[in-house]
Design goal:
By secondary structure, the protein is an alpha+beta fold. Strands 4-3-2-1-5-8-7-6 form an eight-stranded mixed beta sheet, with helices on both faces. Helix 2 runs parallel beside helix 5 and helix 3 packs across helix 6. The protein is globular and about 55 Å long.
Length: about 190
Amino acid sequence: MRSLYWLGLTTSISGNHSIRHRDAWMWITPSGVSRYKIQSNHLVKVHLKTGKVFGTIRPSIELNLHRNIYNKRNDVRATVHTHSPFTTGVSISPKKFSHVIEEAKIVVGQPVIISNKPSGSEDLAESVSSAFQNEVSIRAIIIKNHGVVAVGKDIHQARAVVEALEEWSKILAVSEIFGGAKYYLGEKYM
């Protein structure tokens, strides 16, 4: 969480992570703790089925978003939610996420873009988790005007999806400055 803050993918108060622990529990980042100060003792233990919170630290406002993903996708072991600025920017532009960089094609696949719902709402939790449930190969959901939710077999894979997606978005944004991408993966190069 701290390193994603330093990379500019979250602010001091935005973004959250979780990991599934033994199929019954998850550990999630807290609400109200600056992202650059988070320590392991700030993590909150939550029962996946009941939502029961253990301890006195308040979990992230996106608790149900994380729980819903784990309850719908048994293969997901970690979830990373960031407010990645370039990815969010591309998602609300007329630009499409065309493959222009091989790493992103391999690591991210094809992200799904959905409409925003209020942060922390059941509507947002249901929209995101349903989008992940529809296709097991989906690794990233981009929420317009909000951010990215990525999943993986562990926290490192979910984080790699977020980072590769942001790099892809930066390349798309830079190419627009110079007239737009002219070459895409899968095309013959001159």
